[in-house]
Structure formats: C-alpha cells, structure tokens
Amino acid sequence: MAKDLLAPITLPCGLVVPNRMVKAALYEHMAPLFGGPPNSNHLALYSAWGEGGWGMILTGNIQVSQEHLTLGRDITPPDNLTTKTIEPFRRLADAIHANSTTEEGRPLAIMQLSHAGRQSTNFIGGRRFLVPPKAPSAVGLKLDNAAPRLLPTASHALSQLLFQNPVEMTLDDIEETVRAFVRSAQLAHASGFDGVELHAGHGYLLAQFISPESNKRTDDYSAVTAPLHFLRRIISQIDGVLPSTFAIGVKLNAADYTQAQADNEERFVQHILDIARWSRVDFVEISGGSYERTDFIGHVPSRASRRQALFSLASERAVKELTAWQQANPNAKRPLIILTGGLCSLDLMTAALQDRHADMLGIGRLSILCPHLPKRLIQSGAITDISHETSTASSREPWETRSMQSPPSPAYSVMRGILKVLARQYTLIPATLRPQIPKLVGTGAEIAWYTVAMRLVPDMAKGEWVSLPTTGLEAVLSMWLYVAPGRWNTWMILVLIPLLAIISISF
Ligand SMILES: Cc1cc2nc3c(=O)[nH]c(=O)nc-3n(C[C@H](O)[C@H](O)[C@H](O)COP(=O)(O)O)c2cc1C
Q1: Atom of ligand 1 nearest to the CA of 202
Q2: Where is this region: Disordered (predicted)?
C-alpha cells in the first residue's frame, strides 16, 4: 500500500520528488500585520514539516502585491532583492531542506505565489482606508448567494464591509503585476527554493482572469478569447529569467467556471492541454472553489464513508487527456497532476494513485494534524489507522471528530453561555426573517481552527499534547489575537477590535 505513495517521481524540469505526498499550501497567518518576511514562527513550522518526509512542501500563499493581501498577515516579498532582504526567505528554504534524512530524500521546497485581486479584504488588505483592490474587471464578490430573505441579509452587510468592489486593472497595472510575479519567482530562486507554484485557483487574481464571471474584459486578456493569457505571460517571463531546472507549477480550479457542467469540464480540460503545450509547467495542482463558493475545503469524508477525494473526477480526466496528448507527442513531457482536497485516509490516497486519478497527492489539513505522516510511512512501511497517527495532538480521539479538548477558562465559559442563549433566540425567528449568515463565515471558522492548530505543529511533531480551540468562535478569536515575533502593532488593536466585534455578532 505504502509502495505507491513512497515511489519517487521526476518533474519535467528534471528535479526528483522523493515521494508522492505533497504538503499543500496553507496560509500561516504568522507574518506581521500588513505583511512582511518569514519570521521565527514560520521557521519552526517549516522545520517541523521539513522533518516529516514530504516529497514536496509548498509554502502558504505569498502575496506578490503588498496592496492585495488576504487576511493581513501574509508573507510578502521585499521591493528590492538584496542579500539582506533575501536572507529570511533563504532561512525558510533551509528550514524545509535541512532536516531531511537520506532515507526520506530531500523534499522540494516550493514557494506559492499569489495576488488576491478582488478577494483582498478591506482594512487589512494592505491598502489605504477604502482604497479598492484591483481586479480584471469591476465585478464585486457576491457572498450572499443563497435564497433571498425578507430582511436585508447579514451576509450582504458583511460582504460589503469586508470586501469592496474592485477597479478594473489598466494595462500598466497588468504589466506591473506580471513584473511582481517574476520578481517573486527570482526571490524564490535566489533564496534556494526549488520552484514556485502560481496560485490560479480559489478565486484569486489569476483565477479571476480565467473566469468569465469576474473577467468581462474585451482586450487581449478576455476570459472568453484568451483566458490563460495573463498566466502564460507570467510563466514565459519567469522562464526567460530563471534556469529550466527551476520548477514551475500552477494551482488550478477544476470547477468554478460559469457554464453548464459539461462545458465547464471541457473548458478545464482545454486549459490543462494548453498549459501542457507551453512545455514549461512541471505540475498542475487541481483544486476548486473561491470565497463565493468555498468548495476547496469541502467536507472531509469520514473514514466510514470512503468516498472519493474532492476533485478526483476532474484530476482523473486531466491525467487521461494528458497521457493521450503525450502519446501523440512522444517528445513532449507532460505536467504532473497533483490532486488536493479531502485526502484524509491512506485508502483514499493509495486509491487515487492506483486508479490514476493523479501523479501526486496534495495534503492540507491532515498535514497540520499529522505533520510527519510520510516519515511514519517510510519508517513503518504501512500505517493501518491514520487516527492513531494524529492522536498525539488530541485527547486520543480520531482526528475527524475534532475532539481536541482543553479545559475552558471561566471567561470563555461565560461567553459561550451567552452565545448559546443568543443562538436559541435566533432559532425562534421564522426562517424567512432570519438574517442570513454567509457560508464564508463558517469556512472562516474552519480556516481559523486549522490556523491556530498550525501554530502548534512544532509541538505536535514532537508528539506533545496540545490544546486546540473547541468552537469556531474560540478559533476565530485565537487566530486574530496573534502578535508576530518582535512586534506589537498598535494598528492591530485599532483594526481588529471592530473586526472581532463584527465577527462575534455574525456568530
Ligand atoms: C488554514 C488553511 C489555509 C489555506 N491556505 C491556502 C493557501 O495559502 N494557498 C492555497 O492554495 N490553498 C490554501 N488552502 C487550501 C489547501 O491548500 C487545500 O486546497 C484544501 O485545504 C483542501 O485540501 P485538504 O482537504 O487536504 O485540506 C488552505 C486551507 C486551509 C485549511
């Protein structure tokens, strides 16, 4: 069983990935507010993963534009690349590389590069007060997409508060953004990373250019006539300045285009084949969803249900089409396919490889709960029960149940009591009159839970018992109450107190 997962594979650029298990990109929320370089918390986290035997380790999304952050604590590249500004990034690459053993092989360190575009938040997105973000077109996010209610929805109010309608990028803005991606790839190369992954999924800027829903342009960057033009320009310019042994990957959505399902799939396949024809992309990671439809962290199947991983139908089709394309073009090397989402049991993982749904497997949430999963496999040859592997983080319960309890503090218990009473009142309101809460808030709580858990990865990796949030609200509060090492930013208080109040009301 472990044999398939542990087999090495070679990328088209010639780099060898020692096994098929990829630590997927996970935003760390550890940088100073309004962005900055990696710090000692990042180094501790990535050292723990670096010891874990992963074939490839992707960083969380690093924002190429200081003015388009996601949740404000993103890693951002420096404006100028000098020995001094590169140093923190060099230490990050070292943290990933330095701790592997010969038996496990050296993991590839891949820096994920992104630009949030219209999904960059107000207040903490890195822009001056009420300055809108830039996007392909002036099309705002629609978070309140459920059934209409009689009262104005909380969802609508929240989306207006958190996100502004973007302004359309000029051609100069586009050029500047292409340069920012290329500069960041140069940073990755100079600091010792093995490659970059361009984040063209989850509704961020590169995905906004691809989707006809967010891109209404009629120029060379039209989503109808040239959906991949922007992505292609970035890749060919990176290729022009960096060696061909530097890996380039793309994270792409399987399903967020707007047409009917059949068209949707054809469009996705077309994009995969177009990317293969460029002969410069080493891997395509298949995911899905955006802030409007948060499919990318869809429900993780329980061990009992054993359904397929989240985007396996799309990735299986991608492997099939690419294999056929390669047979027709024997000299071409096809990009490898990484399937990410919902791979939470070893059965699912091995099935995905054996059934040729993917060449490699992206593992997100489970890499937080079990930071040394591949190493355990390498050492033991097999793991029969994944919950046992993750139980060091918990009170000896299977990880899916999330029962990682810690005794609540008295203040926390009082707050929880009040919230319970409020929740009961809420259910007394007739359904059509209830203010509606956007799905993003629930996803936000889930992301927050894992973000807080990520801070504990170094302890979990040592097998220590850790205390994790027991509710979404606690997770959200813990996530935001964070100070980056060496910094106490007064802005944090000014911005976060109103934000926390709003989030608390929404619960
Ligand atoms: C806390 C958290 C942070 C994430 N940050 C990123 C990110 O920075 N870049 C990205 O491409 N995906 C990000 N994702 C999505 C994951 O990479 C992955 O696609 C998703 O979690 C599904 O995989 P899983 O079921 O193995 O968790 C994040 C997910 C979580 C839970």
Answers
A1: 11
A2: 389-408
Do the beta carbons of residue 194 and residue 247 sit within 8 Å?
Answer: yes
pLDDT band at 403 (very low <50, low <70, confident <90, very high): very low
State the Cα–Cα distance between residues 260 and 350, nearest whole angstrom.
Answer: 32
Report d(CA 214, CA 141) in Å as an integer. Answer: 9
Nearest 5 degrees, angle CA 389-CA 395-CA 400?
60
Q: Assess contact for 431 and 147: CB atoms under 8 A.
A: no
C-beta 29 within 6 A of ligand 1: no
365 lines ligand 1 (CB under 6 A): yes
Nearest CA to ligand 1 atom 12: 25
User: Is 449 touching ligand 1 by the criterion CB < 6 Å?
Assistant: no
Distance (Å, rounded) from C-alpha 349 to C-alpha 362?
10
Burial (CB < 10 A; 0-12, 13-18, 19+), residue 65, is: buried
Candidates 163, 189, 212; CA nearest to 89 is 189
Q: Is 455 in the pocket of ligand 1 (CB under 6 A)?
A: no
Query: How buried is residue 231: exposed, middle or buried, by Cβ count under 10 Å (0-12/13-18/19+)?
Result: buried
pLDDT in tens, 325-372: 999 999 999 999 999 988 888 888 999 999 999 999 999 999 999 999
Q: What is the pLDDT of residues 210-237, one digit of tens each?
A: 999 999 999 999 999 999 999 999 999 9
Domains of the chain: 1-380 (3.20.20.70), 410-504 (no CATH)
User: In degrees rounded to 5, what are phi and psi of residue 183?
Assistant: -60, -40
Q: Ligand 1 within 6 A of 343 CB? A: yes
Test site for ligand 1: of 70, 296, 339, 345, most ligand atoms within 8 A of the Cβ? 296
Summary mean pLDDT of the chain? 84
Measure 297 CA to ligand 1 centroid, in angstroms: 7
Alpha-carbon distance 164 to 121, whole Å?
8
> For ligand 1, what atom is nearest to the CA of residue 199?
11
Q: Ligand 1 in contact with 450 (CB < 6 A)? A: yes
